[in-house]
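TA notes. Do not distribute before section.
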Amino acid sequence: MYCRQCGSQIPNNAQVCPSCGAPQGRTKFCSNCGSAVAVNAVACPNCGAQLEVTRAAAVAAPVAAPVAQMPPIIINNTSSSNNTNTNNNNLNNANGGGSIYQNQNYGGYARRPIKQLRTNRGLLKMILLSMITLGIYGLWVMYTIADDINTIATPYDGKKTMNFLLLTFIFSWLTLGIAPFVWYHRISNRIGSELARRGIAYSFGAGTFWGWGILGCLIIIGPLVYCAKLMKSMNLLCADYNFRG
């Protein structure tokens, strides 16, 4: 799992991060609504139901610290149990119904999600709506992909992917069409690295862009395969981010 303070990978049973010394929270689930709550919480912050304080919670809590100084840690920052169930289904079913995670310890996360990201991108949907909107929807989809990967990965890799609209309308012309190749190479490589960092078993990277997106033009459907894999990768990352941060 990963330290919720600095993002370093740490053992699953670690009580504190060996890199920064931050204590690591644990979670349990509300028996009334199913929401994830802190292991030492006495009431569910989502539905208000009283929770049983387990022996593990008493051991995990600092002896000298009062309960009021340990606010519950909410992993899934949503306002309803419907959103929680949707995110869980996305995590378990995004890869054909089976689990795609190599590490099932969902309690180990680095940061709480600052917002809920969309997980319903699809190739057919993009093609149809782009035709209806004269290409505007396709531009918006790529804009959100760049924005979402910055939200997900920037706290860990310190990088920032260029705004797709800025790339399309300015830098593409200034560089005589070279900038888009660099942009797609970098964002594909960045998405692949984040998939690996989060332990999501899905193959995607810069090679996918050059293989399917460029060489795939020889079989016509190659770029469509690349777009489908790009949106599938982002759906997986967004679902994981919505659940673990």
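Switch to the second chain here.
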Amino acid sequence: MAYKNASLEKYLNDLAARTSTPGGGSAAALNAAMGAALISMVVNFTIGKPKYEEFEKDLKEILVKSEKLRFEFLNLVDLDVAAYKSKNIRDALGVPFMLARLCFEGARLVPPLIRKGNVNLISDIAVAIIFLESAFTSACFNVEINLKSLGDKKFAAQVRKELNHKEKIIKKIRLKTEEKVGQIIRG
């Protein structure tokens, strides 16, 4: 079943059902896709506005990246299902690891939008980083459970080191975004 072409209702019904797929990894990828879509929405509502004209070039670059990520995340919704069904630990590990890395890339698109994005969509910027951090954290749990099953301690240490580093940065981005967005909203 290709969920990226299915209705949201079908996906959620299957997610809620007593079946092994889709599961948390697939749901995390969908969450990340929503985060990337919110970044794209903010940019789309900003481009062409005279107030933000000086940022147009940067915004168009962000849009290209957020749209690429959105489609990659959507593909991961189905890739996670396929990896789980394959019963191959390396595949089951690879998908959430890729998701975590891509969430990190997406999170790095958020900070410039606080200043360069349409202020009327400032809360959507906060929601985007919250979705991306949530998907990142979810992916890390799925990586961790698969690392345990893999039994390769050296590889596991390398993966954990990378994800721990990225986790610190993504948390910092989320906290700073929440703080700045809160200040803008409250005036």
